[in-house]
Amino acid sequence: MGQYDVVIKGGMIVLETGEIQADIAIKDGKIANIATDIDIDNDAQIISASGLHVFPGLIDTHVHFNEPGRTEWEGFATGSKSLAAGGVTTFFDMPLNSHPPTVNKYGFEAKDMLANEKSLVDYKLWGGLVPQNLSELEELHACGVIGFKAFMSNSGIEDFEAADDKTLFAGMKKIAALDSILAVHAESDVITEELSKMLGAEDGGAFSASRPIYSELEAVNRILSYAEATNCKVHIVHISSSEVLQPILAARRKGINVSVETCPHYLSLTVDDLNQLGAVAKCAPPLRNNQEIEGLWKAIEEGAIDIIGSDHSPSLVEMKQGSLKEAWGGISGCQSTLSILLEEGYWKRGIPLSVIARITSTNPAKRFGLYPNKGNITVGSAADLCLVNISEKYTLTKEDLYYRNTQSPYIGKTFRGKVKQTMLRGRTVFQDK
């Protein structure tokens, strides 16, 4: 048996601290050596990474794969293949949109069985916090959920209710005692519901106005107060504006344990895209304006945003047709995360590649207890790697997508930065055509 199983030669390795050109040797799914001109034997598979950058495999903390129960929307086979094509080697699946939802041991086991059978890449499952399952949280934690997810506004799914204030507070006390974490969709239910009635939301501008930034701010301030009172770790998902960061940063200074995520669509699409593309670009919180995009990128540059999650929320094609108000709210985009960050961040705004690696891999691994096995490229860590030609230009077509329903607001857009190969523990799970 040879010294190494695989040797990746001549790539530019992207670390959270910078870039180095070196070879990577892999043995038994782990990184065994990083050095220039590694000596190899005849048994090792040689992969040339000349002209390529080697990123740690991305960790997508926020996807909705809908299986079981709504597999026709998306399933683990198509969803994980899409992720692998985008350089993702680990994902966290949200507890709603599947049926049954992951709000008890039965729901967890039903989903875990299918994910284990079908997923091409590694995964963790979120548990839910809903008014009916406070007594189920300890058992869900024992099942191995990565954390718990709650909605402060209507989720759009009948069997996953929004958590009222008493549920949130009681649940956070339990979650804190378990030393787990609560991920929160933070929009005010009262504000969004009442404004939606008043504004109609039949075009992009009205829809965005019906879910304003101050709705996010109200909910964020409330959940941070509960976090302070309960000592519960909190992760605020998919903020749409840098304004929402201000109370979060203030809470951090007070010692509250809070992290924050935004999504590729808030870094690249605006309400004008929503008007042009229609419901395929509808999401909640909604798309904002160019000023908000720039504010979020500045926050990334300053290190204020911890994590990028795709919030891949697919649906049937017919659910995206008809009026904007009635159409399903969710963007299909998990395959395009890295390409968007490279095009919009690295190429257009000069965001260092090390920052992109940090917010897509290292930070998620650290926040959710997967580091140092995942989230970096170092001797002893899992050989979860993504080989990228950061200069290769391509225009995304419907035929490129591996989603079950091949719709996305990014179809027709041109990117610089293409994933050429994705490896999970040293094994190739995606190879560019």
Describe the protein's architecture and organization.
The protein is α/β, with parallel strands linked by helices. The radius of gyration is 21 Å and the shape is globular.
In short:
Helix content is 31%, strand content 23%. By secondary structure, it is of the alpha/beta class. It folds into 2 domains: 6-54 and 381-395 and 414-431, Urease, subunit C, domain 1 (Roll), CATH 2.30.40; 55-367, TIM Barrel.
Question: Strand pairing plus helix content: what structural class?
Answer: alpha/beta
Going by CATH, the architecture of the largest domain would be Alpha-Beta Barrel
Biggest sheet details: 8 strands, mixed
Number of strands: 17
The poorly predicted ranges are: none
H/E element sequence:
EEEEEEHEHEEHEHEHHHEHEHHEHHEEE
Percentage of residues assigned to helices: 25-40%
Average of per-residue pLDDT values:
96
At the fold tier of CATH, the topology name of the largest domain is: TIM Barrel
**CATH homologous superfamily placement of the largest domain:** Metal-dependent hydrolases
Form type: globular
Query: Proportion of β residues?
Result: 15-25%
Put simply, the count of helices is 12
Terminus-to-terminus distance: 31 Å
- Total domain units: 2
Would you state the CATH class of the largest domain? Alpha Beta
Gyration radius, rounded: 21 Å
